[in-house]
Design brief:
The complex is a heterodimer of chains A (312) and B (292). Chain A has 312 residues and is an all-alpha fold. Chain A has helices at residues 2-29, 34-39, 45-55, 61-73, 87-122, 127-141, 144-158, 174-208, 211-218, 223-260, 266-276, 279-307. Helices cover 79% and strands 0% of the residues of chain A. The longest helix of chain A has 38 residues, at 223-260. Residues 1-5 and 287-292 of chain B have low confidence and may be disordered. In chain B, helix 4 packs parallel to helix 7 (152-178), helix 6 packs across helix 7 and helix 7 runs antiparallel to helix 10. The longest helix of chain B is centred in the middle third of the chain and has 37 residues, at 81-117. Chain B is mainly α. Chain B is elongated and about 80 Å long. Classes of the chains: A mainly alpha (312), B mainly alpha (292). At the A-B interface, helix 1, helix 6, helix 7, helix 10 and helix 11 of A face helix 5, helix 6, helix 10, helix 11 and helix 12 of B.
């Protein structure tokens, strides 16, 4: 068991290292002189020299990579090309809203998604099940930023129930914080709810038909107990994989949700950096988020042993 | 019901005939396929059938509500919204299709080679794919746009590269199974070259799962393009896709909700159509697909 955990850990580290290579190589991909591309045609020679120095362009690629990697490993993600901010500092000041958004959306997806899946699986192919299936197909196809814009139009503009955007820190005003986050979390969670509902329904139906469930029924156990204690536990294994993938998806989609609701998170930092072509900032943000995603998926993988009765 | 009994399964039906029978009797999948074909036709004919020039401004009738003259109303500078919606079909679909073609072009040969030759090549390519997939694809695409600059070409390229691992995985897993088959071994022992085996045996066997993946990826790419264009990084004015129309519309949601409603609804239905057609093809494949 310890060996298996070690293997998973090592393969995660390998993927992480490859990600660092890919993210680093992005600067090498810039056609022509990166400094000119970043600064535009009207750059002065001094500006160009400065960007060259900042990107370390006067050195060979491999040397640059190891310098960059050493710095990154010691927590130095570099400095913004256009402001005095460090990348790590900029991310630190923006991370809270994004993490809140993703955490709440994930919890909401898991809770509602699994509940809907359970309801669906009680009577497969019933009218209710079909309605839920149709709704989840729609949920998977819906552009979440559009859903956000529609929620604003309905609940902020027409009904004036909830604010249309912006962010308030929990410490400043807990009530406003909650009101501000409600619509973005719903818009972000919709797709996840649909996907988890679909996955949990499918795997619940699979498990329901297994022999051990029939045995439990024959033993005269209460159907609700069977469902909640035995079926759900086995059925959650594939659902947990999907939840792990959701974290990856949510980090991508939160960029769009932050744009719709004007939330000053990592996503909006990234988008503004893409517009100004602040490559160093983009590199740092993408690398850090991917680290988090890989770490979460590692934890998810290891949680299998706890969920899967076969390994006990 | 009547259709079903008419097309009852026969004793010795070829796999292709069985697939066609099943697919044709799947009403939902068929309706969405027909819808997509009609949409493509409308998109191509948009310049001919649009009631107005999509760029013609009429400031006097800005934010006009839906009426007989303007079925979907007008936007903030009085442009006919229906005409704009129709003209946006082509860029929207084209972005999805081109990005998917690029994903296929990258993912298919690499996946085939990895699954068929195994060994160090497979390990290297698979780990690399894992790494690309670990990066949230929208962020990966954003990073590429940061380097290459905004615009629809970059966006298509970015989406294409970001989605390539989907095809790599499908191609690899199928090649892995097929290479074990006896007839492949037989072909090898007859001295037939690898490239010929890949072309004549392996590739045809993966056609059906690839169709499923292509359909799903087009839908996904359309969502992606809409997102990037919504951020202002994709399709640039005066050209418009449904995504870039949404970017513009959200500022005017309080004036006319239809401006936000229609482009988003259109994206939703098209993505739903591609996903449903993909699902339906997969279901129609049924048993044969698992035989690999």
């Amino acid at each position: 068991m310890a060996r298996e955990i070690l293997t998973r850990l090592l393969s995660s580290l390998l993927v992480l290292w490859l990600v660092s290579v890919i993210v680093f190589m992005l600067t090498a991909l810039i056609p022509g002189d990166p400094a000119l591309t970043i600064l535009g045609e009207n750059a002065t020679p001094e500006q160009i020299a400065e960007v060259h120095a900042q990107l370390g362009l006067d050195q060979p690629l491999v040397a640059r990579y190891f310098q960059w990697l050493t710095a990154v490993l010691s927590g130095d993600l570099g400095q913004s090309l256009f402001s005095s901010q460090t990348v790590a500092g900029a991310i630190a000041s923006r991370i809270t809203p994004t993490v809140e958004l993703i955490l709440f959306a994930l919890v909401l997806s898991l809770l509602i998604g699994t509940a809907v899946g359970v309801i669906s699986s009680i009577r497969p192919r019933s009218v209710l099940d079909r309605a839920i299936q149709t709704l989840s197909s729609v949920g998977i196809a819906v552009p979440n930023f559009w859903l956000g814009a529609m929620l604003i139009a309905i609940f902020s503009i027409s009904l004036a129930w909830l604010p249309s955007g912006d962010y308030t820190a929990f410490g400043d005003d807990p009530q406003r914080w909650a009101r501000n986050l409600t619509l973005p979390v719903i818009a972000l969670a919709a797709g996840g709810i649909a996907e988890i509902a679909r996955q949990s329904r499918a795997s619940l139906i699979d498990v329901q038909e297994m022999e051990f469930v029939r045995t439990l029924k024959a033993k005269g156990l209460d159907p609700v107990t069977i469902k909640l204690r035995h079926v759900l536990r086995s059925a959650m294994i594939p659902v947990v994989t999907v939840a792990g993938l959701q974290v990856n998806r949510l980090f991508g989609l939160s960029v769009l949700i932050e744009a719709v609701f004007r939330i000053p998170g990592i996503g909006s930092l990234l988008v503004s950096s893409v517009f100004t072509r602040d490559i160093v900032m983009v590199q740092g943000t993408v690398l850090l988020i991917t680290c988090v995603v890989i770490a979460v998926n590692l934890v998810v993988d290891l949680s299998y042993r706890w969920l899967n009765p076969k390994t006990v | 019901m009547f259709m079903r009994s008419l097309r009852a399964p026969k004793e010795h039906e070829s796999p292709f005939a069985r697939f066609t029978r099943r697919f044709l009797s799947d009403r939902l999948g068929m309706s969405f396929l027909v819808f997509l074909l009609v949409l493509i036709a409308v998109g191509l004919l948009a310049p001919l059938i649009s009631p107005y020039d999509p760029e013609a401004q009429d400031l006097g009738s800005a934010f006009a509500p839906a009426s007989a003259a303007h079925l979907l109303g007008t936007d903030e500078v009085g442009r006919d919204y229906l005409s704009r919606m129709l003209h946006a079909i082509r860029p929207t679909l084209l972005a999805g299709v081109l990005a998917t073609a690029l994903s296929l072009l990258i993912g298919l040969p690499t996946g085939l080679a990895a699954g068929y030759f195994r060994g160090a090549l497979d390990t290297a390519l698979s780990r690399f794919t894992d790494a690309v997939m670990a990066i949230p694809s929208l962020l990966f695409a954003l990073a590429l746009v940061a380097i290459l600059g905004p615009g629809i070409r970059t966006v298509i390229l970015a989406i294409g590269v970001a989605n390539a691992p989907r095809f790599f995985r499908v191609a690899r897993s199928i090649a892995l199974v097929i290479r074990q088959e006896t007839y492949i071994e037989a072909s090898r022992s007859l001295g037939i070259s690898h490239s010929r085996i890949l072309r004549t045996h392996v590739l045809p066997n993966m056609a059906s799962p690839l169709i499923v993946q292509i359909s799903m990826t087009i839908g996904f790419s359309i969502l992606f393009e809409a997102g990037l264009s919504f951020l202002g990084l994709g399709v640039q004015a005066p050209e418009a896709s449904w995504g870039s129309m949404l970017r513009n519309a959200t500022a005017y949601a309080s004036e006319n909700i239809g401006l936000v409603l229609w482009p988003g609804l259109a994206i939703l239905v098209v993505v739903l159509a591609f996903n449903t057609v993909g699902d339906s093809v997969r279901d129609s494949l049924g048993r044969e697909q698992r035989k690999f």
